[in-house]
Amino acid sequence: MPRILGVDVPKEKRIDIALTYLYGVGRHMSGLILKEAGIDAAKRAKELSEEEISHITNILQKGTYKVEGDLRREISQNIKRLMDIGSWRGMRHKKGLPVRGQRTRTNSRTRKGPRKGGMAVIKKDDSAAKKAPAKPAGK
Fold it and tell me: What's the whole-model pTM score?
């Protein structure tokens, strides 16, 4: 498996698809990277030479594309900034609730987690009625 920026890309897939295994690289960006590197997109990842792999890595590292650690760091810093200034979105991130205006009365279980033990319906036991002596009929 070729390693690009510390990520093993699958060797049996076409290189334009294999590059999407990098965080922050989609189909469009992989096409741009391959065009800049001069590599055929139909080539399999296992068919790449060491020179081509290093060329792709250099293109990704030279700074025009934010991928992997840099992108993750930037996103987490943006979220932290929102929480620090106390914006609505930041508060929603802090509370672990949906940020983009979705309803929370129902749904949103992904953000809220599993249901807490709520108001369960408990049937009243009929044993109290059975224990009371029956009134004699006729008197």
Answer: 0.70
